[in-house]
Amino acid sequence: MAGARAAIRYAKALLSLATDLKTTDVVNTDMKLIADTVAGNKELNDMLQSPVITSSDKKAVLLEVFKSSDKSTLDLINTLSTNNRISILQHVASKYNQLFDESKGIQIATVTTAVELTADLKKKVLAKAKELTGKDVEVENIIDENILGGFILRIGDTQYNASVANQLNKLKQEFTLN
Questions:
Q1: Coiled-coil ranges per the record (predicted)?
Q2: C-alpha closest to that of 64 among 80, 51, 77, 83
């Protein structure tokens, strides 16, 4: 991904600044909003990636959309615009969230299921994930009907695939090999 290393550097610098100003929680909320907004809005994402639209126009749009954000967040937008790096804003926001969670000892567990997780199942997943990692865990549920049933659990670099689709693929491979 283009700009991944730069996104990490900007995110680390922002976390350091927010830590000094004791605004890490507020900036984390802003970064979640930015990451979710850009990811969920194709037009905004296309505008940020467009080489035709000037950095000043991109900056003006972002400052209007996120005008209620913390000063550090607005300064980040200004800095990225000045350095012609505004296109990596979503990646910086995502990296900031990740670094913030790591600094708080929080691990994100992504659970992909065919249907929404029930509250009881979510508690079981949280307990198991905490047992495996020894850290506080937040569960993010992704719904993907293509897995047919079961679940896929990802914590950091570890993935456990207990989906029906995966089991069917394993059976298919066994039959084609024999």
A1: none
A2: 77
104 against 128, higher pLDDT = 104
Phi then psi for residue 153, to 5 deg, are -110, 125
Q: Which residue bears the tokens 């865990």?
A: 137
- Alpha-helical regions (H) of the chain: 4-21, 24-40, 42-49, 55-65, 71-82, 89-103, 119-133, 164-177
Q: Do 146 and 170 meet the contact criterion of CB atoms below 8 Å apart?
A: no
Q: Residue 162 pLDDT > 90, yes or no?
A: no
pLDDT at 90: 94
d(CA 140, CA 126): 10
Could you tell me which residue, 123 or 36, shows the higher pLDDT? 36
In order of start, what are the domains of the chain with their CATH numbers? 4-102 (1.10.520.20), 106-177 (3.40.30)
Tokens (6 digits) for 67: 């005008």
Give the model's pLDDT for residue 138.
81
Q: Which residue has the tokens 């695939």?
A: 161
